[in-house]
Amino acid sequence: MLLKVHTFDGQMLITLLTDFGLSDVYVGVMKATIAQINSQIQTIDLTHQVPPQDIATARFHLMNAYPYFPRGTVHLVVVDPGVGSQRRSIAVQLRSGFVVAPDNGLISGILSEAITAIELSNPQYWRSPTPSTTFHGRDIFAPIAAHLASGVPLQELGTEIELSSIVQLPIPDVIETEAGLLGVIQAIDHFGNLITNIPGERVRGLNWRIRVNEAVFPGKTTYADAATQEIIGLIGSHSWVEIAMNRGNAQNYLKLAVGDTIGISF
Q: Are residues 261 and 229 in the same domain?
């Protein structure tokens, strides 16, 4: 069963999430492509500051933004280091909307919400039947998102594919040890907060500490519980455990990167 496109304040809604930055015209050109198809579509920028080619961070942002949007929203996600290669272009119907993206792991965080997936093989809905090999965001993904938001049925956009065939970006499981938990850094935000893959519910209400190599930092409830430039563990607004520095940058201080291991002890 296809979802009906939801209207947001009387307009159709597309979110945009890319690694294009804001110093070039790429984002504006994608919005212009959408407007050429349907000027009534409203767009919301989630972020265009994903580090270049950082699929893991984009996956994290999409996963955490998705629950806040009304039913029928189309999420347009373009972080595409494989543009022009044989990687698939896909559109996926979710329980509460749609996502249009390259099939490279970007939708891993919301794949449990997927109902139906289509490989975008029908050039009738592209900007051009001969798209650029370097800008599928303009020539394939933005037009497809605009057509979806305008009510074109998902099945008209291409060929149905098995949900199990969609590329997944594996995130290590949280490991229980005698000392507590082992997790990894899954994303780093603008403030330098190091966001782990450990759900906040695993530590909520307990006396816990973050372990980074040989250093140990206390788990706190708020930034205000810490001294200026003290490193602490927190449950972030995204409901994951994160490592933060009060009025400072934890990443710069600890020199950790996405994928690095951290521990929690109780």
A: yes
